[in-house]
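On clarity, I found the account of how folds are encoded harder to follow than it need be. For illustration, here is how one protein appears when written out as sequence plus structure tokens.
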Amino acid sequence: MNNGAIQRRRARRDGDAGFTIVEIAIATAILLMVVVSVMGTLVFASSAEAMSAKRQTALDLANQRIERAKAMNYADVGVIGGNPPGTIPSEESTQGFVITTDVQRMWETIDSTSTESTYKKIVVTVAWQTPRSGSLTVESAIFGRDSYANIADLIVHVVDVDDANAPMSNAIITIDPSLGATQVQYSDSTGTSKFGRLPSGITGVNVDFPP
């Protein structure tokens, strides 16, 4: 075999080896791209799950603070050093959360010349920094006047007396408590509508029947 043939064979072998290395490099690059994409998806899903858990814990903490305030003596419902004054810390930290509480007196017009504080509004904000910063706010009303001492539900049941007292759905029910705001609801399929946490006193009820 002459030297020319040997050199051509070596050239072909060297060329084949070089081409294989290029293929491996391309395949490796594609594999890395797929791995990075999958890892990014997994990291995003894990982060979203962690944020959801944070929000749920924050909501639980906020509701706990509100229920605790509702169980307090009305005169004590307020932040320390605030207006109205009270025994609730304006800020506290727990489980990696910062809880901020604000209490405000709410006023209603009694007549054309005077107003009266009838309840307090408590606003609880829970903030966190990890895995990403976020916060949520929950607020509620706390009643304290003597006339608000007894708070109960009002259930209205609408029936059609011309149809053997059959339940009447979609009736428009408007209530007008002597203390508090007017509320409007529709009766359900059983003819029932429930108004929750109404103060004791005279409550006007008006029913508009469906056509």
Remarks:
- Confidence is low (pLDDT under 50) at residues 146-150.
- The helical segments are 3-70.
